[in-house]
Q: What sequence folds into this?
């Protein structure tokens, strides 16, 4: 399932990058002549509206796919086996000396 989400996210990213590259920041350029359409068929204003809507839709799709994919990616968190009172008791007990260097004698 994780592989499916990764493929979908990459595909949406590629489409989004193509949409962004077609746009011109000043509203002209390729936006007025997408795939050979003339201005009589689709006006420049309508083309930029479609490209802007596509940008927002694919950006939102990336966000949604990333959020949903976190549900299916297995986590590395260990299950909680101790109750909160047991954890408090462990914290209150003094630490037992480990097998390290001996304590200096005074």
A:
């Amino acid at each position: 399932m994780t592989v499916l989400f990764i493929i979908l996210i990459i595909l949406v990213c590629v489409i989004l990058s193509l949409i962004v590259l077609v746009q011109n920041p000043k509203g002209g350029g390729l936006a007025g002549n997408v795939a050979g359409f003339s201005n009589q068929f689709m006006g420049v204003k309508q083309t930029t509206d479609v490209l802007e809507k596509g940008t927002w839709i694919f950006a939102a799709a990336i966000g949604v796919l990333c959020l949903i994919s976190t549900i299916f990616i297995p986590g590395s968190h260990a299950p909680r086996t101790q109750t909160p009172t047991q954890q408090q008791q462990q914290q209150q007990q003094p630490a037992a000396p480990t097998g390290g260097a001996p304590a200096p004698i005074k």
Remarks:
- The first helix runs from residue 2 to 22.
- The CA atoms of residues 41 and 103 lie 88 Å apart.
- Residues 2-74 form one domain.
